[in-house]
Structure formats: structure tokens, C-alpha cells
Design a protein that fits this description.
heterodimer, A: 112 residues, mainly beta, 0% helix, 48% strand, globular, B: 112 residues, 7-stranded mixed sheet, 4-stranded antiparallel sheet
Amino acid sequence: EVQLVETGGGLVQPGRSLKLSCVASGFTFNNYWMSWTRQAPGKGLEWVASITNSGGSTYYPDSVKGRFTISRDNAQNTLYLQMNSLRSEDTATYYCTRIRDWGQGTLVTVSS
Amino acid sequence: DVVLTQTPPTLSATIGQSVSISCRSSQSLLHSNGNTYLNWLLQRPGQPPQLLIYLVSRLESGVPNRFSGSGSGTDFTLKISGVEAEDLGVYYCVQSTHAPLTFGSGTKLEIK
């Protein structure tokens, strides 16, 4: 059974940092591109970052470029999202996904 | 970036009714390898998204066969043949042919 388990969310002040983790199991992790997608309360899905299976290339939308960094540890089957200079508009549930499979999400709330 | 235009934004159906959702892409989703990476997701209330259809028309394992996908190039359709109560939620198309990953804005299915 495929599982994607995200951790690391919480309440953080604007301008601070947070690092999310996603542990994958049930499939060959290093064969797949992985992505982070987020969903603000009551809104649709927004792509946040993607990384190639080797970790050699990463992709971001303009809304997070320069602030967020996606990375992976294929030996540990783990995906990461380092989020710096957080803003109120980054408040959302963050999902780890390979599109075929999704985690349950972790809630990030940016507020003073 | 590829823009996916989903219609209608909301849909109200009775049990047993058949409905269709359209997803139009701003550019062809045919990959150079011959595949078309257009998928359909369902997000039930309070749940993460789940994959229903991949590669335009392939039914994900465990998904009822009342769901079907069709289309090519830039025009795609999700059809539910005989809506059931458990089908309520928001449906998204998502493409991964062209980086970055992009999502449609969603179609909310309500049960009358």
C-alpha cells in the first residue's frame, strides 16, 4: 500500500521559516518525480514545487520562487519543503503528491 | 504555463443522473513520447484529492466504472454515468505533460 505521510506544519509568524517532510512508502520512491501542492482554506489546488526523481532539477511557480526549496533524500524515501520568509498568503494545507497518490496534508498557518 | 479551463464551476445532479465536466487546455497535452498526461482527481469534503482517471481515459484501480474519461489534444471530458451520493465533492483536471504541473479550477458536484 502506498503511503505519503507529511509532517512539520503548524503556526508560524510572518517572515519566519518552516520545513515540511513527507515520508513515502509502498513504491520505488527514486523512480518518480514528486511535488508539493497546497490548498488555501476554501480554495482550489495550487502547485508549489516539483523535483525530478534524481533531485537534479527543481521547479517552482513565481509565487514561491526564491523563498521555498524542495529537496529529497532517496535513501530515506523522504521529500522536503523548506519554506522561508513566510507570508499570510502561504497559509494552506500542504500535500505531498506524485499525482497518483496524495498524503493527508499538513496545515501551515502563517499569522502573528 | 499551461492553463486548464474547467467547466462548469458547479454542477447539481440527482442520483442516477449522468453528468459531464469539460477541461480545455491552452496547448496540446500530447507529449513527445506519445502519451497525454491529463488526469482527473476527486476531492471529497475534508479529504485529500484522489486520482480517478490517468492518461485521459485509464481508470485508476478501485475507481467505479461509472467514471470515464475521454478527449485528446486540448479538449477533455470526465463523465459520470449514474451519479451516486458518494460522488459529491470537487473534481479537478491536472496536467503533467508540460512543466510545471497545472490544475483546473475545479468543478463542485452537488447532489440534489
